[in-house]
Amino acid sequence: MSPSPAPLEGVAVPDAPTSAPDARPDLRVAILGCGTVGTQVVRLLTEQARDLGARIGRGLRVTGVLVRDVEAPRDPSLPRELLTTDAAALVADADLVVELLGGTTTARDLVLASLRAGASVVTANKALLATAGPELYAAADAAGVDLLFEAAVAGAVPVVRGVRESLAGDRVERVLGIVNGTTNYILDEMTTRGLDFDVALAQAQELGYAEADPTADVEGHDAAAKAAILASLAFHTRVALGDVACEGITAVTADDIAAAREAGGVVKLLAVAERVSSGDQGAEAVSVRVNPVILPAAHPLAGVGGAYNAVVVETEAAGRLMFYGQGAGGAPTASAVLGDVVAALRHRAHGGRAPAESAHAALPLATPADVVARLQVRLRVDDRPGVLAHVAQAVAEHGVSIESVHQRVAGDGEAVLAVVTHEADEAALHRTVEALRTTEGVRETVSAYRVERA
Amino acid sequence: MSPSPAPLEGVAVPDAPTSAPDARPDLRVAILGCGTVGTQVVRLLTEQARDLGARIGRGLRVTGVLVRDVEAPRDPSLPRELLTTDAAALVADADLVVELLGGTTTARDLVLASLRAGASVVTANKALLATAGPELYAAADAAGVDLLFEAAVAGAVPVVRGVRESLAGDRVERVLGIVNGTTNYILDEMTTRGLDFDVALAQAQELGYAEADPTADVEGHDAAAKAAILASLAFHTRVALGDVACEGITAVTADDIAAAREAGGVVKLLAVAERVSSGDQGAEAVSVRVNPVILPAAHPLAGVGGAYNAVVVETEAAGRLMFYGQGAGGAPTASAVLGDVVAALRHRAHGGRAPAESAHAALPLATPADVVARLQVRLRVDDRPGVLAHVAQAVAEHGVSIESVHQRVAGDGEAVLAVVTHEADEAALHRTVEALRTTEGVRETVSAYRVERA
To answer: GO MF annotations for this entry (chains A, B) (predicted)?
Structure first.
């Protein structure tokens, strides 16, 4: 086995083509916002202008960067002459507007103004898309321009294009993803170092992985916006932020995580969108949720650590796919933005358009009775004969069957029961958990987590 | 923690758009080849015609399926009236031709004929692309049509579109992938069950995972074609099959695998394409190779088992991305084909084109002196004082330094030395391995593997 094996036999190829210079004026790119991502986008657009021009087939230039205060201190690499506070002028004179402001008010107004002025828009703004997506799509459609947003979900991970384009000929059954790096980091620290939530959160804030106000991350709202976007694309159905059943990680305890580990699993905050059967007629519906779940160690998402993101897509024909990479940060997010910039400018240069909104399936939202899950319920119970029978009875009465029970004596006449159910519908599981609260011998319902299969 | 958390506050969305019927005639799709993949493509195109039409914005129909023998027995779901042996007629009357014949002679002729007749082409034919890619691109360009080939690399895994489009604004540094399921299955069986290569191959053949003539898989040629395609896309440079340094797995022994495991690693057949510095001026070059390497257990590709494929792409801005999924099989490959079918037909319906060949960087091929690697060399040596000194001396004389040495006494006056080097250039490593063959006290060079870092 030699370290430099011989090349294979090949065939001669003609000379590489030399791209003919395009005499048309450069395409104009306006950047709205100049934070971590904006700075990287400007840097990469400037450094790689020649290569990008070759890929687009036409030159491009940054016409300006919208900031709140031109005088504020910022990265010295940023050309000062590009900075402006005149949003209206910037937007009115662009082939492409890159929106990196965040928020849903000014950003919405400027994105709509850009589209109406005939510019394509690339945005990383998940909240905007998850609340005003159809309105933006309609404006893009009316103007015949592109609306692209790879960076809005999972940073550099190209799952938006994957679902929107690569899987356009397949039938997606389920999408599940770790799409929020902050909560994944916190859960990781809780898992590997046994920290409590508050301690892990404080540490994440100190390191800059969590915001001073961590609500959007730890309550799951950020992940819910991404879940809505992925669900819309995967199921060709409008799904808005308000359609997402959402639960964050603030109630996850070190004890819950230790119990999951005992059962061979890890706790992860998952965004899940799935196609389910609804009612007796076998009609279809869409269920979208964000919540902490227990993943068995063999699940491909179980090993996704730290600030990484990963999305598993399960389809009829392709089976299980996974997309993995950095979910946040200036440069990774800028990479996703620039992929969209090249796509939008290619359309500008040569015609064609990115896929418009695809909502033809228009599936209804699932009800809890449509959605099937397994649950791990942990209970503090009296350590005396007959209690397990009461618990088993309470579960059975709701049509739910038990897959496994693990009992651990806690002392002081108390035991902790971990009951894992077989698949049952969410409504029945919900009633079961409620019933267990008042079952004879049960002192407290400690926690209830969905359990995924590997 | 409740199993059915409350939906978030959301905003109302306007009614979903109803797609206006398009009065234009259906787009015509011709299928060349009706093996496992072709059968699935026809099935999915037929079953999902309405949904696909909605995504494309215009109806489509399969005009015919090219077969060698209309009377041959085949899947009863396949509409007999579509089967034809008249390739010329099929190709002359299509908006899109899907080439699933394999091979590089008839397939090349028919693809060229299709493109010249003005049809876009979707193909899964890696060998064709890796040997005649530039010729096909030129024909597509001349006719103003698309040439798409997601299914040619890693089956359902959307890495072609990922590199070609999503990363178009980034700078790829390295691509490394497990892109051949047959060899991955064989190495997996050798690893988990301690089988010898011949036994594992025979078993793979029995189960239908390996062909009767397994040469293309086990010698690495199939992976080399995919490496050439990925390298071309990643580095905007023409790379043909003949440019790929290629070594298969036929010389991998159960003993090699056991030794890798002792060092905490696994042996995987990797396709690797990387950008390297060439010469003193810091010019760039491209190195492309296929060979068995030792991966540490923590590497994201180390856990990719069985017939799965995965490709890691390392870029300047995005960092490390991974794409994972089923690399072969009728339905997964058909999923990739159908994604391309939708893209090509959208262009047909609404204008625009897929990216043409991007070869603007035109980097030269690297020489062994440009490429840096670490090597694990195993040697059978005399078990006597001084031999390690001779070995260390021989390695040092070639400017290579040693990272670790592991010695195991084998009995009969013999020991086995496993030497892992630090990074050194391939030319120096090659000379080192040659010198070790004749170093005093060395009886035999057992194996030499590249070792990747996690």
So the answer is: homoserine dehydrogenase activity; NADP binding
